[in-house]
C-alpha cells in the first residue's frame, strides 16, 4: 500500500485536511513498526485505491531550533513515504520555515505536492500563485474546512504514487474485488461453496497478481473475481461474546476492500435491522451493490407477498440495486450473480463527459427550475463529474438546493444515464 506523508507547520490546517482525506472512514491507528507518537498512520481510500496517510507531527522547535526540527521531520517523512504532501497556509504564504522544508523536499526522489490551504474564495488566487516560488510545482488550492479542492488533490496524490500492478484497479488490472456479506447464518459460506463448487474452476493464482491468503479467486461466467476476506467464511469462527461487534467490523472492512458487494439476505425470514445495517455500510462506503435473497427454496407464496412489501417499505433507498433470488442449497439462480456484478461495476465505473452532463442538466433545469427560497431563485450554473467509483457529481449553484430537489436531480440523473447497481453522489457548491 503506498504511503502519503503529510507535513506542515502547526495551524496550517493539517489535521483538518487529514480528516478530509480520510472522509467518513474512521481513523484507525495502525500498528506500523517505526510509527511513534509524532507519526500516526491512517488507512485511506480514494477511487477504489487504498493508501496510508502518515500524519507527521507538528514542527516544534527542538534543540536545533525550529529549522532543525523542520528539516528532520521532512527527512523522516521522505524516508517513510511514497509521496509527500506539504500543506501551506495560503493566507500566510511561504515563511522561512516552508522555504527550509522545500529545500529538503526538492532533493527528494519522491513526488511532492503542495496544498495551499484556507483558500476559501476566488480572491485568494494570487496568494496561491506565489507558492510557485517554493520550487515544488503547481500549488493546489484547497479549503480543508469547506472541503473544496480535496477531490482534485486526492486525484493528484493517486497519480503521484508509483503504480504497482497489485494496486491498479479496474478492467485489465487484475480481478475485480467482491465482498460477500450478510448477517450470520444467511448462507454466505454455503453460497461461496456453491460458487467455488467442483464444477467450477477455483483459481489459485493468476499471472501477475499476488493473492492475499484471506481472499479467494473464483471463476464465474468466464471471468476471475476476487472474493475478499473469505477466510472467515471458510473457517467458521466460534461464537463468543463480542463476536458480533467484530463480525460487523470485519464486514465493514470487507466492503471497503471490495469494489462491489453482494449483500445476502435470508429470503425465508422477515427482513431485519442487521440486513439494513449491512446495506447502509455498502451505500456509505460508496460501493456497487447486488442484493441476493437466499434460501429461496423455502419461500412460499405468503412469504413472497410479505417480502414484496418489505422491499417497498424498507429498501427504497437502494432501489437502484438489482435483486436476485437464489438458493445456495439447490443452486437456483446462482449463475445470475456474475452478470449482475458486471452491470453494477459498469455503472460504478461510469464517467459522463462534462459536455453531455451539462447539456442534459440545462434542459432539465430549464424545464423544472429549483424551488424559490427566501425570495430568491437559485440558479444551477454548471456540473461536473468529479469522480467515478462511485459516480460523484458536483453542482455549482447560486443558492441552496432543497433536499427534495436534490432527490429529483438524482432520480433524473439515474433515468438519463442508468447507474443500475451503483450509488451516486451529488454535492452542491454554492457560489456567491
Ligand atoms: P453464513 O453464516 O452466512 O456463512 O451461513 P451458512 O452458509 O453457514 O448457512 C447457515 C445455514 O443456512 C446452514 O445450515 C445452511 O445449510 C443453511 N442454508 C444456506 N443457504 C441455504 C439455502 O439456500 N436454502 C436453505 N434451505 N438453507 C440454506
TrEMBL record:
Database matches in SMART domains: AAA
Top-level taxon in the UniProt lineage: Bacteria
InterPro entries assigned: AAA+_ATPase, G_ENGA, GTP-bd, GTPase_Der, KH_dom-like, KH_dom-like_a/b, P-loop_NTPase, Small_GTP-bd
Sequence ranges assigned to domain EngA-type G in this UniProt record: 2-165, 176-349
HAMAP family: GTPase_Der
Protein name: GTPase Der
Record-linked NCBIfam families: GTPase_EngA, PRK03003.1, small_GTP
Repeat is among the record's keywords: yes
Keyword tags: GTP-binding, Nucleotide-binding, Repeat, Ribosome biogenesis
Subunit organization: Associates with the 50S ribosomal subunit.
Keyword match Nucleotide-binding: yes
Role summary: GTPase that plays an essential role in the late steps of ribosome biogenesis.
